[in-house]
Amino acid sequence: MKAMIVSADTARVQMLAVPLKANDFQVEMASTAMHAASMLERSQPDVIICEAVLSDMSGCDLHEIIRGDPSLVTTGFILLAPEKPAEFEMRKHDLVMNPNSNPTDIALIAKRLVQEVLTQVNSEIRASQERAPSIGGSLDDADLLNLVQWLAKSNSTGKLVIHMDGAYGGIYFSQGRPTHAEYNGRIGEEAVIRLFGQASHAIQGHFSFEKLEPDALDLQTRTIRKSLFQLLMELANFESVSR
Description:
The protein is built from seven helices and eleven strands. The protein is α/β, with parallel strands linked by helices. The chain has two domains: 2-123, Response regulator (Rossmann fold, 3-Layer(aba) Sandwich); 129-242. The longest helix has 26 residues, at 103-128. The chain starts with a strand and ends with a helix.
């Protein structure tokens, strides 16, 4: 999980960073709204904790920029303000917290916001499991790595479901880009790496791919931030370490 703190108050940033890291967040910091905006495309944080008053624009203005980006529509946003500003348009995954709140409480709320998104994704997966697959077959006949690369090159949108040795895994694609994955209790990029690793020596397995319309599910929800190329590079490193 990734958290971004937007504040010029160094002491506050440090107080917030400690409990966030203790709750499994990678923490990035920005001292101004423009600095934060320049980092968003690369960082794709799961939650943003922002001061209401910044040197270049208000936290409310930054919030509107973020909510205007479709790839950040499910990013949690916590505005640190004594009370809700009149211009702050509350939307799903938004909260206002007093800046004097206990930093640990703020970190726990941030974690809850991220978990709510993951719960939403998992419910979408369960709701779509009864749909008939568009393609499918045995992993003996189709290498998982080649299959994923084909889905990427063909700009496919849908859900790839893999069953191997009694375990279930799933990868969502939006126009060929992996956006979410789960496997054996793991979520996101780690789930993809573990799926590939298991597929290389699975005794038996089969797959199905269900094509979906872009608006059939909330495919903007992301637990995968890296490109397929980056994931394949990590897989090569993972396999070399595992040997």
